[in-house]
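Input record (one chain):
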Amino acid sequence: MAKCTAVIDIGSNSMRLAVFQKTSRFAFHILHEVKSSVRLSEHAYKNNGYLQNEAMDRTALALGEFLSIARSFNARKVLCVATSALRDAPNSAAFLSRIRREHNLAIKVITGEREAYLGGMACANLLPAISEAVTVDVGGGSSEFTLLRNGKVEQLFSLNIGTVRIKELFFDTNDISGAIAYIDEALKQLPEFNTTTLIGIGGTFRALTRALMKKENYPLKKLHAYTTDTVTFSRFTDQIQEAGPKKLRSLFIKPDRFDTIKPGTLILERIIRYTRTKTLMCSGVGVREGVFLNDLLRNAGDTFPANYNPSVRYLLDTYGLHSNHAQQCAHLSKRLFELLHVPLGIRPEYQRELVIAAKLLSIGVDIRYYAYQRHSHYLAMSALDYALTHPQIALISHLLLFKKGHSASALIPKGGYGALLPDDATLDALSALLWLSHILLAARVDASALTLDMDPQSGALVISGKHLYLAREQLKNIILPKNLTLILKD
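The corresponding structure, as predicted from the sequence alone:
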């Protein structure tokens, strides 16, 4: 088994374990993930911040089982960090000593600023590129803020406003106006970020986003990189604030969130109001991924190489081992795109999705050769998690579908992700270029051996090279754009 790293994140409300497996130098995927609602800070804020025995017992028990899981994967490292619950508690040293004694585990208590950095750095690396955004991680005891600009962390802030803290100090006594005043006073410590995009990290934001996606029948089951506007989000959170338990269920809020969802929602509402952001993006990554990436990228400045996508690399490492055909298709499809995107009316930004689709063309073969296109489609749709928007994921995955004599637009599933795809003409043209690349290389030749030229008189694409016999036979299987004529020359 490849090397695995286990990361444990001890929060005020929940504790989580993620087991990461590397597939090459910078590529990875998650092998296992588990959450336990240990509520380490339960009743602490009512008792001068002191952790209570029952909460510490729960956490110690869960930690023991987390470590058992890590051992089952032969994890070479166990990285354990703790946030607000342990950095605030006067009796944290006693708990840390107990865990070291019982489990031989050294917990690293990180500052609020370090917590903000790890979450922000994970977003900068694993979300689609955004020129400027503010990340907000609403936890149980505190909320962390990071200003991201051009993929870099620029400013860090940590405020003592968290779901459990606000619940115990205000909601338990129904002092909502007091909670608002407390949150708004804390937010005055923040500067004016002057950005229109807010990236939400943490359990509360994810719970609200997941519920909103279900309410709207969103076509992709992907939380990471889901994007909405503040008007839609605020309209939904208003319903959450007014809902009783029965209504919360109908709004797709899980019962284990009932007692903290309203304090967390109030915190987010006040933050959105204060920052005046217009676009909201959900991050499926946070402190755990930040801890892992900080270790993975320790000699690379906490940043992936330019144009590197860990999800694409993971898929190629795992399923693209038997042939370089897909890589050759990527080279050829890029050349075809550069030559034809203007006459075919395709916007230049779609080149990236076309090339990624070409690289992933054959990954389904490892599942089963027959109908491998469907397997490639499924793997891409399932495992393209990082650094891509949902429309990009939908397009790349859909281009991998193929049926003889059918256009790509004819293969869009009913009631599916069609709304995320480009117009039919663009979709069909991109698909034609992808599968034309595949067919032209049917003899598994090197793409550089083919010459591509546009005939100045007829406007036809002239393709010259050896080993085009199979390509001539197979061209009848694809539908080319009406304004594209091919001439094959040996």
